[in-house]
From TrEMBL:
<feature type="domain" description="Fructose-1-6-bisphosphatase class I N-terminal">
    <location>
        <begin position="14"/>
        <end position="183"/>
    </location>
</feature>
<dbReference type="GO" id="GO:0042132">
    <property type="term" value="F:fructose 1,6-bisphosphate 1-phosphatase activity"/>
</dbReference>
<dbReference type="InterPro" id="IPR033391">
    <property type="entry name" value="FBPase_N"/>
</dbReference>
<dbReference type="GO" id="GO:0005986">
    <property type="term" value="P:sucrose biosynthetic process"/>
</dbReference>
<dbReference type="GO" id="GO:0000287">
    <property type="term" value="F:magnesium ion binding"/>
</dbReference>
<dbReference type="Pfam" id="PF18913">
    <property type="entry name" value="FBPase_C"/>
</dbReference>
<dbReference type="GO" id="GO:0006094">
    <property type="term" value="P:gluconeogenesis"/>
</dbReference>
<dbReference type="Pfam" id="PF00316">
    <property type="entry name" value="FBPase"/>
</dbReference>
<keyword id="KW-0460">Magnesium</keyword>
<dbReference type="GO" id="GO:0006000">
    <property type="term" value="P:fructose metabolic process"/>
</dbReference>
<keyword id="KW-0378">Hydrolase</keyword>
<feature type="binding site">
    <location>
        <position position="270"/>
    </location>
    <ligand>
        <name>Mg(2+) 2</name>
    </ligand>
</feature>
<feature type="binding site">
    <location>
        <position position="198"/>
    </location>
    <ligand>
        <name>substrate</name>
    </ligand>
</feature>
<feature type="binding site">
    <location>
        <begin position="106"/>
        <end position="109"/>
    </location>
    <ligand>
        <name>substrate</name>
    </ligand>
</feature>
<protein>
    <recommendedName>
        <fullName>Fructose-1,6-bisphosphatase class 1</fullName>
        <ecNumber>3.1.3.11</ecNumber>
    </recommendedName>
</protein>
<dbReference type="GO" id="GO:0006002">
    <property type="term" value="P:fructose 6-phosphate metabolic process"/>
</dbReference>
<dbReference type="GO" id="GO:0030388">
    <property type="term" value="P:fructose 1,6-bisphosphate metabolic process"/>
</dbReference>
Amino acid sequence: MQRLAPALRQDNVPLDLISLIKTILAATKEISFRVSQAHLGGLMGSTLDENIQGEVQKKLDVVANELFKDILLESGFVRAISSEEEDTSVAGDQNGKFVVSFDPLDGSSNIDINSLIGTIFSIHEAIPDMDAEDPGQFQQQGNKQVCAGYVLYGPSTMLVMTTGSGTHFYVLDRTHGGYLLVERNVQVPKDTQEFAINMSNQRFWQEPMQNYINDLVAGDTGPRGKNFNMRWIAAMVGDIHRVLTRGGIFTYPADSKKPEQPYKLRLMYEANPMSFLIEQAGGLAMTSTGRIMDIDPTDIHQRVEVIMGSSNEVEACLSYYK
Ligand code: AHG
Ligand code: MN
Ligand code: MN
């Protein structure tokens, strides 16, 4: 099996980006270790703090964020970072060529039940001559990402990454301490009979999503004429990994549960990187009105509607909005 750096060189990834990716992966190896220690390291449960989005921070959210932030800011490759767990962007090295957005631990509610969690990251080139302190660095569309990926701390620690030449799977080999390429150019099947949505929000969805899901649930007695299965891991990393592996549609649609907050998932460090991975694997990554990666970001913590996965199924869902 091929090691990471040769695999990236084969895709003509520039050397400075390879160095940054290696830096990111060093942090994920440390997070993977801390996650595996769990109770033994005193890392279960919550802190007494909330992040800027009003969510209670788990101890592992904070540890993962500090590890990721420190290693990136010390690397010299990074002009600035933004993170789910940081109020604003944080300046790095003015000569750094890249900016990195990340969700240090996705699926935090799974930490205490020893279930799937992961780290999501998105890399853009820094805007030339823009100050490292300027959050405007992050006002770049998802289609300008030069790399995106996640690390899943599952039964095996897996890296799923794209630099724009397909989406590839890697597994952390603890015998030599590096990631090995296990599957090149993953393809999301165009059709599926599996959907992922938090059904408990059903009464808060808009009518098109209510109608679409009703037709999926009706199975072979409804207009779709086939049965659908449902899965919900409550960690986007886990749900998207399943979609990349065997197809499916994943959605977190608009809802009216909290009228001031119609969407749940965050554009910069959840929706955009996952969209890049899904599109590079032949899937679609949309809102009900357009492509996620074409959105002009205005805030590092902005939220967005997400409908992504198997292309024919995403189209089928969107047809209900027309
Ligand atoms: P995070 O743990 O980083 O805050 O993200 C959780 C997100 C996402 O991973 C997942 O798909 C979704 O929230 C789960 O939402 P529900 O709590 O509604 O199931
Ligand atoms: Mn998340
Ligand atoms: Mn998180």
